[in-house]
Design goal:
The protein is α/β, with parallel strands linked by helices and 171 residues long. It folds into two domains: 131 residues, Rossmann fold (3-Layer(aba) Sandwich); 36 residues, no CATH class.
Length: 171
């Protein structure tokens, strides 16, 4: 058994939401390397070209991967993918460069999607751990954030103070 699986006693499937994303891809790679069975909830599992890099990772490792259809903005959409899982890595969040209303296009869907995933967690007795992920923009929006950081270095101690709905809304 691997160090990761042993440390966290992962003997059951692990769910990663929106495994086609950048952060999720690295999580899935690590899990597959550690011989863990991964449930990946994606928008459309029939789009094989979008999943090809994940299938390639699976073919090179000892872990297994199963895809599930899920919609971040549909209540209960992650429930099937979550069955029998003990850990949920929530990486799914809307991201688009076509923003007309930042609150409506980014913030509200991110909050609603997270709420729906956590509601499914609460209805799934096997889930004992949830990991919420973010990107570097949680701690960095503008150079002003770097200027205010100790030694001009960003760490887990810094938070993005310059972005908001009106300026650089992807938080």
């Amino acid at each position: 058994m691997s160090l990761l699986a042993e440390s966290y006693q992962i003997k059951t499937p692990v769910l990663v939401t929106r495994g086609t994303g950048y952060v999720a891809g690295w999580i899935i790679k690590t899990l597959l390397e550690e011989c863990i069975f991964v449930h990946d909830a994606v928008r459309d599992p029939s789009k094989k070209e979008k999943l090809a890099h994940l299938r390639e990772l699976e073919s090179k490792n000892t872990g297994k991967l199963k895809f599930f259809k899920a919609d971040l903005l549909l209540k209960g959409s992650y429930f099937e993918a979550m069955q029998d899982c003990t850990v949920v890595f929530h990486t799914a969040s809307p991201f688009t460069s076509k923003i007309t209303n930042p609150q409506k296009d980014l913030v509200d869907p991110a909050l609603l999607g997270t709420r729906y995933v956590l509601q499914s967690v609460n209805e799934t007795p096997t889930v004992t751990r949830v990991v919420l992920t973010s990107s570097a923009v949680a701690m960095y929006g503008d150079n002003k954030d770097i200027e205010s950081a100790p030694n001009h270095t960003l760490t887990e101690g810094q938070w993005n103070t310059t972005s908001g709905v009106e300026h650089q809304p992807y938080l």
